[in-house]
Amino acid sequence: MLVVDASIAVKWVLPEENSDRAAALRRPEERFVAPNLVAAEIGNAVWKRVMWQDFPLADGLSAIDLALTHFTQLIATEELAARATEIAVELKHPVYDCFYLALAERERCPLVTADKRLLAAAKKFKSVEVRAL
User: Fold this and answer.
1) What number does CATH give the domain 2-132?
2) Which sequence spans correspond to the domains of the chain?
């Protein structure tokens, strides 16, 4: 099982740098989990494309649906909020990213991200293995 954040999920469905590497993670035997916050973050990435890159809305909506199908399970943020906030304070990093760290810690599995800021912050958080894409 892997926790993957929106930086990976977006690369599964929208052409971006290293989309091929993100797609390579999707092996039949692999299970992906994320906080349900990932849906909002994927939606925000699609919104940016639609608003500023002449990306068709219908394609964006399909991309959101497709990205979410790759997750075995989405975990309610309510289950992770307290721990994510503790981690955010400890790392001095935005709480949104720390939901992924809290889930990886709880599930005792790696977090995979393409987010350079999250990778840098997570180096100080030794209880979770964080992998760069």
Assistant:
1) 3.40.50.1010
2) 2-132
Closest C-alpha among 46, 76, 71, 75 to residue 61: 46
Residue type at 61? Answer: L
**Residue 99, beta-bridge partner list:** none
90 CB-near residues (< 8 Å, 6+ apart): 124, 125
Asked whether 11 and 118 are in contact (CB, 8 A), the reply is no
DSSP 94: -
The region, left, alpha or beta by phi > 0 then psi within -120 to 50, assigned to residue 122 is alpha
Q: In this structure, are residues 114 and 23 in contact, taking their beta carbons and an 8 Å threshold?
A: no
Per-residue pLDDT tens for 44-84? 999 999 999 989 999 999 999 999 999 999 999 999 999 99
Q: Tell me how many degrees the CA angle 25-107-27 measures, rounded to the nearest 5.
A: 15
Instruction: Look up residue 99 and give its two tokens.
Output: 């939901």
Instruction: Let me know: does 26 contact 70? Beta carbons within 8 Å.
Output: yes
User: How far is C-alpha 30 from the geometric centre of its chain's CA atoms?
Assistant: 15
Q: How many residues does the chain have?
A: 133
